[in-house]
Amino acid sequence: MSIIQPELEVLESSPDSLRYLEHGWPDPLCRWHSHKECELHLIVATNGRSYVGDYIGDFAPGDLFLIGPHLPHNWITDEVWTDPVAQRDMVIQFDHEKIEGLVKSFPEFEPSQNLIKRSQCGIKFSGYPLDDAMARMASLRDGTGPHRILEFFDFLTVLAEHPDTETMSIQKIDHAKRSKQQIKICDVVDHIVQNFSDEMSVESAAKMAGMTEATFRRNFQATTGHRFVEFVNGVRIGQACGMLYATDEQVAAICYQVGFQNLANFNRHFLKMKGMTPSAYRDKARKDLIPTKETA
């Protein structure tokens, strides 16, 4: 499944304004997809890669995401988690248009609407207390009637004031508005994700898409929000992160396994994207991430 051409999910109609679901890993619900509803998504177990629009990053227990309408997304747990996980995600899905209608009558709820507007590119909330987030999600799961809606708006209000947020996708990748050029880029993106260790050039990628190099460069950046080389390096660095803490492979070996041909170049790109060296990342991951698996 392309990370540009996601599966379009049509949710079942329901009389409830909020739809709650939870699932473990692996699970059929964990796939690259989009839907017209907004989604509040809490990770409660495992570590791995987040794919939201053109964003590729790490996730860990306690990370909370607000995904806007038609924004493709998926969370893939690292292979170090070899045993099935009973519960990895707690999710609330809702129709943003209903909130817009409520704000017209009750302007006090405007911070929630502004938060949802920001979610068109995806928002990651870091440092939010996991226990509090789980308790709020559980209350929304079990609640009924108007009290449930009020609790939901209270949660959105708290999140709107949360100091540590990150806008995720550079582009608003709206699945419902893809052009013919974007669709042509899909096969190239699939090839990169599935064959990240192979040698790749703009020339060969343009030929795969049936475009001139200049046209390909322009359309690739317009579709993914990244230049071609930046995108390839981002996928490779993401793969390297999982290998660093999940294996005992030497950094140099991982460098070549994910497709870099030069260790110094790999270290430079890793430092730029992760803010630390590969060795420092491994040490931090072994300290912070692996214990989470044992206690999950």
Automatic annotation (TrEMBL):
HTH araC/xylS-type domain sequence ranges: 186-284
Q: Which residue spans traverse the membrane?
A: none
Q: Which SUPFAM superfamilies match?
A: Homeodomain-like, RmlC-like cupins
What domain of life does the UniProt record list for this protein's source? Bacteria
PANTHER family named in the record: ARAC-FAMILY TRANSCRIPTIONAL REGULATOR, TRANSCRIPTIONAL REGULATOR MTLR
Ordered alphabetically, the record's keywords are: DNA-binding, Transcription, Transcription regulation
This chain belongs to which protein, by name?
AraC-like DNA-binding protein
What lineage, starting at the top, does this entry show? Answer: Bacteria, Pseudomonadati, Pseudomonadota, Alphaproteobacteria, Rhodobacterales
The GO terms describing molecular function are: DNA-binding transcription factor activity; sequence-specific DNA binding
CDD domains per the UniProt record, alphabetical: cupin_MtlR-like_N
